[in-house]
Design brief:
about 130 residues; mainly alpha; Helix Hairpins; binds magnesium ion
Amino acid sequence: MKEMQKYAKQLVKDMNWEIDDANFESSRTSLLNNYMLLTTEVGEVAEELRRLFNITYQEMKNGTNEQEAFRHGVETVQKDLGKEMVDCLAYLMKMANFFEIDLEEAYYEKMAEVKKRENKDVGVIKK
Ligand SMILES: [Mg+2]
């Protein structure tokens, strides 16, 4: 992750896509723009899930059993779903780099917190 973040920092610089840090207003505009782009990519992840479910239902309608239809759907969307996840990651890394957040370190810290936390959801069965 550290290597990816370093790569992302250089890529953003090379492409002239850096978050503007000239002053508060330009940083604010730039951060909001990046945040907006991140949320559009999250929406694109949802579109791929929608495509997966539609493929599955369509194949089931055509007589394929559920498990096989779902497996085929997963295979069909896998590459594009991965691309949308990477788009999300790219915007997250860009923002993390702006704030000088080490995502690898922050991830392990946060997950350690989550592991200690009691699950407050009722009726959720974790596998
Ligand atoms: Mg995308």
